[in-house]
Amino acid sequence: MKNLINQSLKWTLLLIAPFAMASVSPGDKAPDFDLKGHDGKSYKLSQVLDGKTTVVLEWFNNECPYVEKHYGTGNMQKLQTTYTGKGVKWFSVISSAEGKQGYRDAASATATRNERKQTSTAVLLDPSGEVGKAYGAKTTPHMYVINKEGSVVYAGAIDDNPSFQKDTVAGAKNYVVAALDATLAGKEVEENSTKAYGCSVKY
Question: Is the model's pLDDT at 99 over the cut of 60?
Fold first, then answer.
């Protein structure tokens, strides 16, 4: 009986293993990546950082109501405009697999970007889910702030109100704003890890 249980456990672990995700925590070196953008250009994290640039990764699914909460109110676009204006590179990452909700190729990602009036540096396409899984991105939006040295200084939710209702944006504590302001000022991020909320990433 014991051998049967052990064998069953072994097969269970083998089945689970291919779908295991990494988990990036504040203080960890940000996993490097090289992804195509909506504009056809390649974006390699290690080249973007270049020792002086702060980076934001924002997991994006246009059909997610939690994404709609922040884009429908203009909140996300405002943040993108504000911080790219301060030299931050902001990437909206789509890790939805082909055939799954939120999937975009370059042309449709460009159309969505124009429709949403996104002002992020680029929309990055990760249909294999390799980059999303390397970071442990679980939701849309799931936010990461990476400092100029290439270390993750914030990972988690965009703010402290996990509702999808648009009227909850005003008055919410924005963790990403706090993390970016501290990082750009050369200070330590006080609240560097929170539980991300939103729709599951459609790997």
Answer: yes
3-state secondary structure (DSSP) of residue 47: helix
pTM of the model: 0.89
- Residue-range definition of the domain harbouring residue 44: 21-200
Total domains, the chain: 1
Q: What Rg do the C-alpha atoms of the chain give, in angstroms? A: 18
* CATH assignment at residue 30: 3.40.30.10
Q: How is residue 25 written in tokens? A: 């925590």
17 has pLDDT over 60: no
Residue 38 belongs to some domain of the structure: yes
- Among 150, 195, 126, 203, which residue's Cα sits nearest to residue 31? 150
Assess if residue 157 is contained within a domain.
yes
What secondary structure does DSSP assign to 138-190, as a single string?
-EES-EEEE-TTSBEEEEE-SBS-----GGGSTT--BHHHHHHHHHHTT---S
**Three-state helix/strand/coil letters over 75-128:** HHHHHHHHHHCCCCEEEEEECCCCCCCCCCCHHHHHHHHHHHCCCCCEEEECCC
Contacts of 162 (CB under 8 A, 6+ apart): 197
Query: Contact 65/194 with Cβ under 8 angstroms?
Result: no
